[in-house]
From TrEMBL, chain A:
<dbReference type="Pfam" id="PF00977">
    <property type="entry name" value="His_biosynth"/>
</dbReference>
<dbReference type="GO" id="GO:0005737">
    <property type="term" value="C:cytoplasm"/>
</dbReference>
<protein>
    <recommendedName>
        <fullName>Imidazole glycerol phosphate synthase subunit HisF</fullName>
        <ecNumber>4.3.2.10</ecNumber>
    </recommendedName>
</protein>
<comment type="function">
    <text>IGPS catalyzes the conversion of PRFAR and glutamine to IGP, AICAR and glutamate. The HisF subunit catalyzes the cyclization activity that produces IGP and AICAR from PRFAR using the ammonia provided by the HisH subunit.</text>
</comment>
<dbReference type="InterPro" id="IPR013785">
    <property type="entry name" value="Aldolase_TIM"/>
</dbReference>
<dbReference type="GO" id="GO:0000107">
    <property type="term" value="F:imidazoleglycerol-phosphate synthase activity"/>
</dbReference>
<dbReference type="InterPro" id="IPR050064">
    <property type="entry name" value="IGPS_HisA/HisF"/>
</dbReference>
<keyword id="KW-0963">Cytoplasm</keyword>
<dbReference type="InterPro" id="IPR006062">
    <property type="entry name" value="His_biosynth"/>
</dbReference>
From TrEMBL, chain B:
<keyword id="KW-0456">Lyase</keyword>
<keyword id="KW-0028">Amino-acid biosynthesis</keyword>
<keyword id="KW-0963">Cytoplasm</keyword>
<keyword id="KW-0315">Glutamine amidotransferase</keyword>
<dbReference type="GO" id="GO:0000107">
    <property type="term" value="F:imidazoleglycerol-phosphate synthase activity"/>
</dbReference>
<feature type="active site">
    <location>
        <position position="177"/>
    </location>
</feature>
<dbReference type="GO" id="GO:0016829">
    <property type="term" value="F:lyase activity"/>
</dbReference>
<dbReference type="GO" id="GO:0004359">
    <property type="term" value="F:glutaminase activity"/>
</dbReference>
<feature type="active site">
    <location>
        <position position="179"/>
    </location>
</feature>
Length: 255, 195
């Protein structure tokens, strides 16, 4: 049986790993390679690197640190941030990333999803979705890397999930903005709704604070993977402890 | 020297990095002479079967690769290319191993691609499984699968039984990505290098 994936997310800003609360007040947590190696050794199933300023500042991720990371990391990793063309994605994939994750550029120009899927295959194409509740429905946001640029994209989240899959997305990371950084748990209500709209793997993101939060996302919302940042970076939850707990709850995990 | 056949896929550096970590020399190439003389050959592949076969034919490697006599390992799509044909783009493949690649059946409750870490169940001995425990997790990303047959050395389960490791004569295929399967994948690549 396919195991449930635990995915530490490293928000990268100016070459270092940072973490903010609700996308604000970022503090430096450490060096990219140190943290990546630590999580690999702890048994993380995958890593996601978000260059959180690239999209808002209209630049593409640098590939030097991707090459460095690929040399030492032998688990899959995904890179996000400012990828807005097939050429951008090619540079990132050829530097050694296994997947690219597209968020704001896909909203601006949805054909990019089709182009990436055709060129590299759907398995490389992750769509990151920042979603928030607004007037009784969920809507997607763009440019969420900094508070000054974040804006509603005026599109319903579930409509967007269907569209990105039709266009060739191979995986979806649903970041529930209301929960992000709060440690009150994943937004299970939203994830359950999203699950019904996703035939591709769905990754929960935003709000993890306790071991139970992960279990709930896997069991109640039936997500394929759970992404978290702060709780791992601050050492409040370690990957091995989390996986032992999930196994004790009857979930299939790679120990 | 390991020749890593350049099929234009995007995981070439992942594969070469993994070989680097094992301190083995490698070259990424499409040159038939270099491939023929290499001690071992790796056939990586990410993307679609049809596009990769087109590139192999264009590089004039489609006749030569099936005649290789040194240990040759296809990874992911590279494994699927070892079979006779694929439903992905309805293409002929290289034909070292009998059978046809088909789409993984879409079952209720199972997402596709089959993406993530899944367990190996052993079918019969293979040199590549030395020091690997049955039930170990390896990393898969794919939507198509080869046939289960006498050449299946290890399988995994995702709605149906899927061949994970195949072997016939000097040809080996891994549906998973050993280069992305942490310590277990490294063990298998070390076993391949030691052949």
């Amino acid at each position: 049986m396919l195991s449930k994936r635990i995915v530490p997310c490293l928000d990268v800003r100016d070459g270092q790993v940072v973490k903010g609360v609700k996308f604000k007040n970022h503090v430096i947590l450490g060096e990219i390679l140190d943290l990546a190696q630590r999580y690999r050794d702890q048994g993380a199933d995958e890593l996601v690197f978000y260059d959180i300023t690239a999209s808002a500042e209209k630049r593409t991720v640098s590939t030097k640190w991707i090459e460095d990371t690929a040399q030492v990391i032998d688990i899959p990793f995904c890179v996000a941030g400012g990828i807005r063309s097939v050429d951008d994605a090619r540079r990132v994939l050829h530097a050694g990333a296994d997947k690219v994750s597209i968020n704001s550029p896909a909203i601006e120009r949805p054909d990019l999803i089709n182009e990436l899927a055709k060129e590299f295959g759907s398995q490389c194409v992750v769509i990151g979705v920042d979603s928030a509740l607004q007037d009784d429905d969920y809507y997607i946001w763009k440019y969420t890397g900094s508070e000054s640029t974040a804006q509603s994209a005026g599109k319903k989240t579930m409509d967007w999930l269907v569209e990105v899959q039709e266009r060739g997305a191979g995986e979806i990371v649903l970041n529930c903005m209301g929960a992000d950084g709060t440690k009150v748990g994943y937004d299970l209500k939203q994830l359950r709704i999203a699950r019904d709209f996703c035939q591709v793997p769905l990754i929960a993101s935003g709000g993890a604070g306790s071991l139970e939060d992960f279990k709930n996302a896997f069991i109640d919302a039936k997500v394929d993977a759970a992404l978290a940042a702060g709780v791992f970076h601050r050492g409040e939850i370690t990957v091995p402890d989390l996986k032992r707990y999930l196994k004790s709850q009857g979930l299939e995990v790679r120990l | 020297m390991i020749a890593i056949v350049n099929t234009g896929g995007s995981n070439l550096s992942s594969v070469s990095n993994a070989i680097d970590r094992l301190d083995c020399p490698w070259i990424i190439t499409q040159d038939p002479d270099i491939i023929l003389k290499a001690e071992k050959v790796l056939l990586p592949g990410v993307g679609a079967a049809r596009a990769s076969m087109d590139k192999i034919i264009k590089a004039e490697l489609s006749e030569m690769l099936p005649r290789l006599t040194q240990p040759t390992l296809g990874i992911c799509l590279g494994m699927q290319l070892l079979f006779e044909g694929s439903d992905e783009g309805q293409t002929a493949c290289l034909g070292m191993i009998p059978g046809r690649v088909t789409a993984i059946p879409r079952n209720e409750g199972l997402t596709l691609p089959h993406m993530g870490w899944n367990r190996l169940s052993f079918k019969s001995d293979s040199a590549l499984l030395k020091n690997v425990e049955e039930g170990s997790f390896v990393y898969f990303v794919h939507s198509f699968q080869g046939p289960i047959n006498q050449y299946t050395k290890a399988a995994t389960h995702y709605g149906v039984e899927i061949p994970a490791l195949v072997e016939k004569d000097n040809f080996f295929g891994a549906q998973f990505h050993p280069e992305k399967s942490a310590a277990i994948g490294q063990t298998m690549l070390r076993n391949f290098i030691a052949l």
